Amino acid sequence: MRAREVWFPPGATQRDWVVDGILAVSLALVSIVPYVQYAGTGAPWFFLVGLSLVTVLPVALRRHAPLVMLVLVAIGCTLQLVAFPAPTPSLFAIPVVAYTVARWVPGYASRSVVVVGAFASILGPLRWFGMNSSGNPSTDILYWGACMGAVLTPYAIGRRSREVAKARQNEIRIAEERYQLLLAEREQQSRLAEASTRTMIARELHDIVAHSLSVMIVQAEGGKAAAVRQPEVAAEALDTIAETGREALHEMRRIVGVLRAAPDSVEEPPTYAPTPTLRDIPELVARTSDRATLGVHGEPQAVPPALALTVYRVIQEALTNFLKHAGLDAHATVNLNYGSQSITVEVVDDGQGVEDPTDGGGNGLRGMYERVTSMGGTLRAGPRGDHPGFRVIAVLPVRESGVPATQRRSNPQ
Question: N or C: which end of the chain has fewer CB within 10 A?
């Protein structure tokens, strides 16, 4: 700590100046009134009043400059000790000085008041009563102890007050640090939630756009090939393209509308549509291509909407990859197995496949993996080992604890 902060501790307010000034004036009034009866002691009464004021008025500096106050009060007491051989009411300033130095002066510098008080406790009784005034050493020790107690007691109280104040400041600082840490943690959680939401939206957009465009491309190529020989087939392909495009556009508007909507927005509120369920899977496979077939094994049961959406998106993405990479002559089979503990999805094709399934950036497979693992399942995707083609297998556990019993006995999602 710098010397200036020891001599002039920071933090004294205007209110402290007022309180200390009132205390100093009060001590001055208490100390000068009794001097009227000592006017005949040989010293002019105004001289004694001046010494008393020199002793007590520095108390006004107790919060701004406690060590300066200690020096000035020590000088005033010394002058009174020399000029007046008896205790005076101005000595009431000594406990105030001891407490103030102990309370506001840090470190070893605060012990200076104890050293000064120890010397004064010896010199004061010697000047007032003389060494042999009582004839009993115990009486002299009692005098010295009383004078020293007037210094040590307020000093101990002041140090204790300082420790309590420091402990309180530490508690406030720790609470502020904890609050800042809590704010940082909340901000981090908000960023993680935002990143998770962005990832989820990116997956949804990828699934919608990639699948719809793949279906439209395949239907357009098939319609072009059949336009001359089978015009009715070309017309059906165009109808499928138009329907798929409208559905994709509707889904895109729904997602973007949710993103742009604000609580106080005056624009038209976004439209909401139910998320795909297990009942929509046959239509998905039929709409994708006539080269894709669906096989369902087991009895479907009621599952949470998130699990149903995951099954739907896995099949959608697998068929999208089939349309993009398998070739025009390949066929795909979707096997959907409903078990009591899990749902198994297998999408296998006999096409030419692709050497690197992540050559398109890997967003599709990565999105499938994130969806499946978030539901506690497993995903395997890669080329078939025994035949040409590609296989995607996802195993998703059925968490019946999240579905009411009455709902499990009803129709599937």
Answer: N
